[in-house]
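ingest -> validate -> predict -> emit
validate: passed (alphabet ok, no gaps, 138 aa)
predict: started
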Amino acid sequence: MFAIRITASATPGAPELAAVLDAAAWANARWIADERDAGRDPPCCLDCADVLYRPDTPSASRLSIATGADLIARRRASCGEVAAYVLGMRRANAARDGGDPRGVGYVELARTAPDVYHAIVRLADGSILDDTKEMRHG
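emit:
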């Protein structure tokens, strides 16, 4: 089972956070593809896996991003982890279907307060995915 955990000792700025979430999305795409190759069916979304959305606290001084099996097992996710999973699933689906996973979209950060961001997925067609709106909070 493939999973990574990215931890930083300080809260990164927007460019660094976007890069970390992009790496997490690629890790999720790899995990999803590996699960499918092993004959297992990865959850289509985190809500289907009973993962709860838990927003990061604005005062959090550390960053921790879980992916793949670690994220599913933990049963809670930040907006960044949700966006990275959604984008990872889209990338894995594109690769499976013969498309280019690099052209699917990217994680976009919306500033909600000074040094506080909300992560969403911006698809190549310009549409936005924010699965946190449909997830249960916990």
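Residues 30 and 92 are 7 Å apart (CA to CA).
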